[in-house]
Write a structure and sequence with these properties.
Prephen_DH (chains A, B), Prephenate dehydrogenase (chains A, B), oxidoreductase (chains A, B), NAD(P)-bd_dom_sf (chains A, B), homodimer, globular, NAD+ binding (chains A, B), alpha/beta, 11 strands
Chain lengths: ~350, ~350
C-alpha cells in the first residue's frame, strides 16, 4: 500500500453502519472498492446501490491494498484471521471495533502486527446496517489508530487515508490507553443511560416520567436505544476498564448524593462548577506540531511520538513520506506536555 | 381572572430564562403585561426591548389579573408572600419553580391556596437570564399545574392560558406526584451528568477523554453546564424524592455492572431491551378524553379527574367554562386506567 490514494484497491468486510459508511465514502472518493458482508441480503442491497459485492469473501479481498474489517465486535478476530489468510503480506488490514486491546493481542499472537493496525473510527448512531450508512459519517470525527513498532508503514498509509479521504482526525494511541479512555468517554455513559432508562421503565410513575421527560432525561437515555446486543458486546469486550472507570464515576456520584443528603449547597455548587470545565470549548489555538523521522531510524522513537500526540488529547493532521523521511503534522492541547 | 384572554392584565416577577420567556410570549400575544426583576440592569434591559419594567414591584403587580413568579427557586415562597400582600384576592398567582411540594405547603400555611396555583413549565436551557429568553420556549412543552380543591377557578383560567397562549400541554398533578416524577425525569439525570463530567474532569486521561468524547458522553454531560447554583438549588429543594429515585437508578446500575462483571451477555441484552422501551414513541392514537362538571358540584371530583389525567401520563388540551359547567378536553395514554 502507498502511492496515489486514488489508485488504491480497497475492500470493506462487514458492511453495517460503520463498515458501510467507510465503503460509501471510499466509493464516493473514487477508489476501487469492493464490499462483502456475510448476509446475502446486505450484499444484494449493496449491488442495487451500484456497489461491487461479490458473493465470495476471497473474491472481495483478492489483490487488495487495504481491507477494512467491520461487523460485530466479537467476530473481528476470526475475520482478521480469515482475511489475513486470503491476502498477502503487502495488504494492510485495519478494523473498526470499539475496543482495541483484545484484537491487538490476538494479532500479535498470530504474527500479524506488521500489517494489521487496530482502528476505531469514533462515529456512530443508534441505527444499524448498510441502510443507515452515510459517506460523510467520519468528517471531523476522531479515528483512533493503534500502531505497533513493526507496523509503522501500514500506519502511515492509514493516517493518509483517514485524513485525506475521510476528513477525520487521526488519533494514535496504544490499545490499552484507548480502552481506558473509551471506557469513560463512551462505555460508562452507555451504562448510565441504560440504568436511567431501566429505572424509568420499571417505575410506578413511568408514563408520567416519559410525559415530563426533560431535556436532561432525553439526553441521558438516548443511547439506551442502541441495538442491545451491540451495546452488550462493547461493554463485555472492555470489562476491566469499564468496571474501573465506572468505579470513578460512582465515587463522583456518591459525593454528589452525600452533598444532597447533607443539604450542603457549597459542596454541590463547587462540584458542578468543576465538572462543567470538562465541557468548556478548548482554545482554538492548539499549537501545531511538526516532526520528521528518518525511515531507517529507531521505530520506537516514531511510535512514542505519534502515541504521545493522541494520548495527550491531540491528533495528526497529515503524514507524508518522501526522501527517506516521514513528516507528521498535528495539533495537541496547549497545556499538554511537549 | 377570566373572560377574554386578550384583555388580561398580567405581570411576571423575576424575569430570568423562564420568567423572561413567559413575559416575551405574553407580550407577543398582545396581553397587557408588565415585568419586574430585582436586578436593575435586567429591568433596564427589558425597557430597551420595549417592555414595561417599573422599578417598584408594587407598581408592577397592581391591578393585575394574573402574576407569574419566576426567579431562583429558594426565593419563590417569599416572593409569593410579597406579591400576595400587594394584590387582592381576585389576582391569580402561579410560579415556575422546578419542585412543588414545599411551595404548595407554604401557600397552604399562609391561606393562599384559593388563588395560588403551583406551576412548572418543563422547558429550559443551559443558559440563563432575560437575554436567553425565547417567546416560543414553551410550545409543545409540558406545563405542570397543581390545583387545590379550593383553587379550581384559578386553575381553569391558567389551563386556558397555558394551552391557548403558550401552546403548551397542561399537566395537572398533585405536588407530591410532581416532585416524585421530576426527580426521575430531571433531577437524577442532572446527578448522573454531574458525576460523569466530574469523573472526567478529575481523570488522568482527561484531555484524551474530551478528544474522544462520543455522542453518549456529550449527551450524558450536557446538563452539567447548567449554572451550578441553579442545579444545586433544584436538587436540594427535592432532596427526599431525589434520593429515593436515585436509589432506584443505582439499583439498575448495580444490575448492569454485575452483568458486566459476570460476563453475562443474555442479562445485559435483556436489560437494555427492556430499558429501550421507555424511549419508544407512544402511539399517536392516544384516546381523547372529554369531561364536564357542574361548577356547583363537588370540587373533589373535578380535582381527582384532572390530576388523574396528568398523573397517568396525559395532558389537558382545553378547558371552557359556560352555562354553569366546566368542560375539560385532554388525552391520556391508551393503556392508562380510565
Amino acid at each position: 500500500m502507498g502511492g496515489d490514494v486514488g489508485r488504491l484497491r480497497a475492500a470493506v468486510v462487514g458492511t453495517g453502519l460503520i463498515g458501510g459508511s467507510i465503503l460509501l465514502r471510499l466509493h464516493e472518493a473514487g477508489l476501487r472498492v469492493v464490499g462483502w458482508d456475510p448476509d446475502p441480503a446486505t450484499r444484494a442491497a449493496g449491488r442495487r446501490r451500484g456497489l461491487t459485492f461479490p458473493d465470495d469473501l476471497a473474491d472481495a479481498v483478492r489483490d487488495r491494498d487495504v481491507v477494512f474489517l467491520g461487523g460485530p465486535l466479537p467476530s473481528l478476530p476470526q475475520t482478521l484471521l480469515t482475511v489475513a489468510g486470503l491476502t498477502d503480506d503487502r495488504c494492510v488490514v485495519t478494523d473498526v471495533g470499539s475496543t482495541k486491546a483484545a484484537v491487538a493481542e490476538f494479532a500479535g499472537a498470530h504474527g500479524l502486527t506488521g500489517r494489521f493496525v487496530p482502528g476505531h473510527p469514533m462515529a456512530g448512531a443508534e441505527r444499524a446496517g448498510l441502510t443507515a450508512a452515510l459517506a460523510g459519517l467520519f468528517v471531523d470525527a476522531a479515528w483512533v489508530l493503534c500502531p505497533s513498532v513493526d507496523g509503522l508503514g501500514p500506519f502511515r498509509s492509514l493516517v493518509g487515508l483517514v485524513v485525506d479521504v475521510f476528513h477525520a482526525h487521526a488519533v494514535p494511541m496504544s490499545p490499552g490507553v484507548h480502552d481506558s479512555v473509551v471506557a469513560l468517554s463512551s462505555h460508562v455513559p452507555h451504562l448510565l443511560a441504560g440504568s436511567l432508562a431501566g429505572a424509568a421503565a420499571d417505575s410506578a410513575v413511568r408514563d408520567a416520567v416519559v410525559r415530563l421527560a426533560a431535556g436532561s432525561f432525553r439526553d441521558g437515555t438516548r443511547v439506551a436505544t442502541t441495538p442491545a446486543r451491540r451495546t452488550a458486546d462493547m461493554l463485555l469486550a472492555n470489562r476491566a476498564q469499564v468496571l474501573r472507570q465506572l468505579a470513578e464515576v460512582r465515587a463522583a456520584l456518591d459525593g454528589l448524593a452525600e452533598a444532597v443528603r447533607a443539604d450542603d449547597l457549597p459542596t454541590l455548587v463547587d462540584r458542578y462548577e468543576r465538572a462543567a470545565a470538562v465541557r468548556r470549548p478548548r482554545p482554538e489555538s492548539a499549537p501545531p506540531v511538526r516532526r520528521e523521522f528518518a525511515l531507517d531510524g529507531d521505530p520506537a522513537d516514531e511510535l512514542a511520538f505519534v502515541r504521545s500526540i493522541g494520548e495527550s488529547g491531540g491528533h495528526l493532521t497529515g503524514c507524508t513520506v518522501a526522501g527517506g523521511r516521514v513528516t507528521y503534522t498535528g495539533v495537541r492541547p496547549a497545556d499538554a506536555p511537549a
